[in-house]
């Protein structure tokens, strides 16, 4: 035996080892580059042909919006793709979406995370998982109840008055101006006031630290070549990106964290009735226990409508429930960040698109103006519940704007366990993408999808 081993040692030395190792490495690389790409086929789901390492990345050259339409056109309402090795199952069939998000929801509570979300975003309800998601979501549900929203209305009106004053000046001068910038200032003021407890007039004070940090947060993006590397080799690149020093990221996190810590310390010193009634306060109040119960009560729309129809206060119906552990400062910052993500870009874009659609559809604009004028005569100081009933045409205009230009046009869910959805097998861990944009532009469900027609939503 010794002789044989000795012979092997002799033979395996030098260039031979190099060649053998290179061959093994190449075989492994070849396997790694394509081994992930048979899963969709096994599930019987059609998809564009995947390229080694990057999967269908090049299919998304034009951006996700165009590609989502293309996927639906070429492969139908159930299709798939790979980003790097990650498989996505894309769904734009309303029945299937309903099954996943309503009937079988308990198997799909988690969203997919890339692992690269900035800390406050990772701590927000958008990326918390399982039990903790449910607990924090119930804190938010109570903070968004109609009566709590009513308490926040004065803060929102304050920011709105500033916006109207700016718009009036532009209207009087009759000069062209960028309305998206005005909306951006308005939403920044609302977010600062409602979620971070800070009073800001961003149009007048663009150098305010809050305004500057918000702009920086949204200006930060991952350069394309790095993105390709991350998608192709996630198991190496994601941990690497997380540990590598990133001054910009740390500075931004530090700023928002310190702001919330300072405001929290101040609020804790104040008497309860002296505290500002904002979203931050609602979350701080609910740090230890929450009044709303489980997932079945998370449907805000139902709550809002039940509150307008009868006077029962929904959150009063439930006993307070202790959280398994109180919200940490990082988690409070995370929930305030939801406003930054949702309230800043999404609302700025929705307002801008609605304005554009009204400007290009003057008849709708006139009709809306009549409704709003009538409403303000009737309710000089409107409450939240008045908004629900008194402005049906505005509601239709917003719904049609969101149909045509949905800001969150794709979102994901992860399957916790193997399951069947309308005959389609979904394996545990699979990521399902709801193709909101493609569904909203499907002529089968929305005839003449490119036409702005708020009447689609008229309740007869
Ligand atoms: C036009 C406006 C908005 C649109 C189109 C929109 C859209 C969405 C979508 C598509 C989701 C993901 C749903 C899912 O994964 O099932 C979501 C989640 C969420 N949005 Fe919005 N959003 C808007 C405004 C807002 C605003 C203003 C806030 C709060 C300030 C907000 C707070 C949230 C929260 C807290 C979640 C997570 C809920 C959860 O985890 O259960 N959204 N939104």
TrEMBL record:
Signal peptide: none annotated. Its EC number is 5.3.99.5. Its cofactor is heme. Monomer. Belongs to the cytochrome P450 family. Its main location: endoplasmic reticulum. InterPro entries: Cyt_P450, Cyt_P450_E_grp-I, Cyt_P450_sf, Cytochrome_P450_3A. GO terms for molecular function: heme binding; hydroperoxy icosatetraenoate dehydratase activity; iron ion binding; oxidoreductase activity, acting on paired donors, with incorporation or reduction of molecular oxygen; steroid hydroxylase activity; thromboxane-A synthase activity. It comes from the Eukaryota. It catalyses: prostaglandin H2 = (12S)-hydroxy-(5Z,8E,10E)-heptadecatrienoate + malonaldehyde; a hydroperoxyeicosatetraenoate = an oxoeicosatetraenoate + H2O; prostaglandin H2 = thromboxane A2; (15S)-hydroperoxy-(5Z,8Z,11Z,13E)-eicosatetraenoate + AH2 = (15S)-hydroxy-(5Z,8Z,11Z,13E)-eicosatetraenoate + A + H2O. It is a multi-pass membrane protein. This is Thromboxane-A synthase. The chain crosses the membrane at residues 12-32. GO terms for biological process: prostaglandin biosynthetic process. It is found in: Endoplasmic reticulum membrane. Pfam families: p450. Keywords: Endoplasmic reticulum, Fatty acid biosynthesis, Fatty acid metabolism, Heme, Iron, Isomerase, Lipid biosynthesis, Lipid metabolism, Lyase, Membrane, Metal-binding, Monooxygenase, Oxidoreductase, Prostaglandin biosynthesis, Prostaglandin metabolism, Transmembrane, Transmembrane helix. GO terms for cellular component: endoplasmic reticulum membrane. Catalyzes the conversion of prostaglandin H2 (PGH2) to thromboxane A2 (TXA2), a potent inducer of blood vessel constriction and platelet aggregation. Also cleaves PGH2 to 12-hydroxy-heptadecatrienoicacid (12-HHT) and malondialdehyde, which is known to act as a mediator of DNA damage. 12-HHT and malondialdehyde are formed stoichiometrically in the same amounts as TXA2. Additionally, displays dehydratase activity, toward (15S)-hydroperoxy-(5Z,8Z,11Z,13E)-eicosatetraenoate (15(S)-HPETE) producing 15-KETE and 15-HETE.
């Amino acid at each position: 035996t010794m002789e044989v081993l000795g012979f092997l040692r002799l033979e395996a030395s030098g260039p031979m080892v190099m060649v053998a190792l290179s061959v093994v490495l190449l075989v492994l690389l070849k396997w790694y580059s394509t081994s992930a790409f048979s899963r969709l086929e096994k599930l019987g789901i059609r998809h564009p042909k995947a390229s080694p390492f990057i999967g269908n990345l090049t299919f998304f050259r034009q951006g996700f919006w165009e590609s989502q339409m293309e996927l639906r056109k070429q492969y139908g309402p159930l299709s798939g793709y790979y980003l790097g090795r990650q498989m996505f199952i894309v769904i734009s069939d309303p029945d299937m979406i309903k099954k996943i998000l309503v009937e079988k929801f308990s198997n799909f509570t988690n969203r997919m995370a890339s692992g690269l979300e900035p800390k406050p975003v990772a701590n927000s309800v958008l990326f918390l998982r399982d039990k903790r998601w449910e607990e924090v979501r119930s804190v938010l549900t109570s903070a968004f109840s109609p009566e709590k929203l009513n308490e926040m209305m004065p803060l929102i009106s304050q920011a709105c008055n500033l916006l109207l004053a700016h718009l009036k000046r532009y209207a009087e001068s009759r000069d062209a101006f960028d309305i998206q910038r005005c909306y951006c200032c308005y939403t920044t003021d609302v977010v600062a006031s409602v979620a971070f407890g800070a009073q800001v007039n961003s149009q007048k004070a663009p150098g305010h630290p809050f305004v500057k940090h918000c702009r920086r947060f949204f200006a930060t993006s991952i350069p394309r070549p790095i993105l390709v590397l991350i998608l192709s080799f996630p198991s190496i690149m994601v941990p690497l990106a997380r540990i590598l020093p990133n001054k910009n990221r740390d500075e931004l996190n530090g700023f928002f964290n310190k702001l919330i810590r300072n405001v929290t310390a101040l609020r804790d010193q104040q008497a309860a009735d002296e505290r500002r009634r904002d979203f931050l306060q609602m979350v701080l109040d609910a740090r230890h226990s929450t009044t709303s119960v489980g997932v079945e009560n998370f449907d805000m729309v139902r709550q809002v409508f039940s509150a307008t129809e009868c006077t029962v206060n929904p959150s009063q119906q439930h006993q307070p429930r202790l959280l398994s552990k109180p919200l940490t400062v990082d988690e409070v910052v995370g929930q305030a960040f939801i406003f930054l993500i949702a309230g800043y870009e999404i609302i700025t874009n929705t307002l801008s698109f609605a304005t554009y659609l009204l400007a290009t559809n003057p008849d709708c604009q006139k009709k809306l103006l009549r409704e709003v004028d009538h409403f303000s005569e009737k309710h000089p100081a409107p409450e939240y519940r008045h908004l629900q009933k008194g402005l049906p045409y505005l509601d239709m205009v917003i719904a049609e704007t969101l149909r045509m230009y949905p800001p969150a046009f794709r979102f994901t869910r992860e399957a916790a366990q193997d399951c069947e959805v309308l005959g389609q097998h979904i394996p545990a861990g699979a990521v399902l993408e709801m193709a909101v944009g493609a569904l909203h532009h499907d002529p089968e469900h929305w005839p003449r999808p490119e036409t702005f027609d708020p009447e689609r939503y008229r309740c007869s």
